[in-house]
Amino acid sequence: MPSPDTETVSSSLTEGDLVRPMAQLAWPIIVTQLLMVAYNLTDTLWLGQYSTDAVAAISLAFPLIFLFISVGGGFTVAGSTLVAQYTGAESERSAGTVAGQTLSFITIIAVVVGVLGYLLTDDLLGVLPSSPATAGQVVPLAAEYMAVFFLGLPFLFGYFVFSALMRGYGNTRAPMLIMAVSVGVNVVIDPVLIFGWGPVPQLGVAGAAVATITSRGLATLLGLYVLFGTDAGPDVYLEDFRPRLEYIVKIVRLGVPSALEQSASALGFITLTAMVVTFKPEVVAAYGLGNRLTSLVFLPALGLGRATNTIVGQNLGAGKPDRAERAVKLAAKVGAGTMFGVAILTFFFAEPAVGVFIGTGTEAAAETIRLGAEYLRVRAVEFAFIGVLQVVLGAYRGAGNTKTALAFSLVALWLGRVPIVYFLSFMQGMGPAGIWIGMAVGQIIGADRRRRVVHPWDVEEGSH
After folding, report:
1. Could you tell me where the DSSP H helices lie in 196-320?
2. What one-character DSSP code corresponds to residue 240?
3. Which is more confidently placed, 93 or 459?
4. Given CA atoms 153, 183, 30, 62 in this order, what sign does their dihedral have?
């Protein structure tokens, strides 16, 4: 049975005031996402002291890694949505069964995807049309990072699944606390493995990957303990791991559109990266660092979006669509206002923010900082739109309407960002500035189209 604190939060999601339960759900999600971004920023910080090429290497590697992660990531959305709907309907046993089915299903996917990624690392990097400097200096380092990362991919998926299931249940604090422990371990061992210390050899970019996998593995083990050894989440038993066709069908029906959505996004970013790597390494590094910093400033919007996912799912499960609609409108207003404030801060403090992560004192480093700050200032224009976008996407997913989210993502990326970046950067000869502008404009197009759908549950597909 859930703990008293969890019962209180869960019941308040479907009754009474909306502001407090939304805040209670959202702030731990924001902190958790901040901690997850801290993994990447820690790597970037230390690798920035190691070399500019090392920063460019992880900028090159990450879109390719994300392509493989996205396959399983879509199914975590399905697990979170179904757990939320069953919890809202007060079907505790079914929520636990869904959790077990999701864990076992995604574990198999993680093993298969990790092996494939490891075997295809060189082929994936060979597809990118790199400049001579990037091919000689950056691509070999990216291959080192990716090979280690793919071998440890199941450890990453374990925490992703745990976090999604707990979020659907209405408990966002347990994932936050576990992630805090994991990030603390990563912060300690990252520089040791990158630079070498005592008997530990210098591993460079591979050391950053080893540190991430090790600390994420610890998070997975702690998450499994919470699910099986405590009453903080849905009741999961060993028998829940035995394949149950009726639940697998639901997970697949909801998960496939989300997996396609995330995979399409990953392919889009690979296409964008393929354009970026035709420029000098400083542009590649600035692009990757800028994306990591924008992922940091997007955290309030992501937190509200994922909280909306849970609130919509539980209220629809409880038969309260009007309350779900009120939650979406409230979260959209808060998200837009918050991200507007973040945009102002980003615009004025872009250069010092980038400078924190590049400290080699070379001419290449100065150019990377200049380009990265320029990128952040352009991207700041889209931030308020992101606040609305993430909330509405959360509403789609909470309602089980994952196909609509897929359609809008395809429009925003493949009819927005990718062609606009290519047109401005290459056909109009704007170079890196065309990349920065295209990234922002494409996202605004997607956000504007998403906000037009008022009731994401009009085409409800995932109801229990």
Report:
1. 205-229, 245-276, 281-297, 299-317
2. G
3. 93
4. negative
Signed CA dihedral, 23, 236, 255, 110: sign only: positive
Of residues 48, 56, 55, 54, the one with CA closest to residue 358: 48
> For the stretch 16-54, what's the b/e string if a residue is b when 16 or more beta carbons lie within 10 angstroms of its beta carbon?
eebeebbebbbbbbbbbbbbbbbbbbbbbbbbbbbbbbb
pTM of the model as a whole:
0.70
In a domain, 385, yes or no: yes
Residue 464: inside a domain, yes or no? no
What total number of domains does the chain contain? 1
DSSP string covering 378-398, please? HHGGGHHHHHHHHHHHHHHHH
Question: What DSSP state is assigned to residue 18?
Answer: S
* pLDDT the model gives residue 221: 93
Determine the residue type at 181: V
Q: Is residue 25 part of a domain?
A: yes
Q: Which of 22-26, 96-100, 204-208, 298-302 has the highest mean pLDDT?
A: 204-208
Cα 254 from Cα 101, distance rounded (Å):
14
Give the rounded distance of the alpha carbon of 462 from its chain centre.
Answer: 22
The residue type at 102: T
Quick one: pLDDT at residue 397?
78
Contact 181, 216 (CB under 8 A): no
At residue 10, the pLDDT reads 47
Q: How confident is the model at residue 6 (pLDDT cuts 50, 70, 90)?
A: very low
Q: What is the rounded CA–CA span in Å between residue 60 and residue 174?
A: 33
Owning domain of residue 96 = 4-453
Asked if residue 93 is part of any domain, the answer here is yes
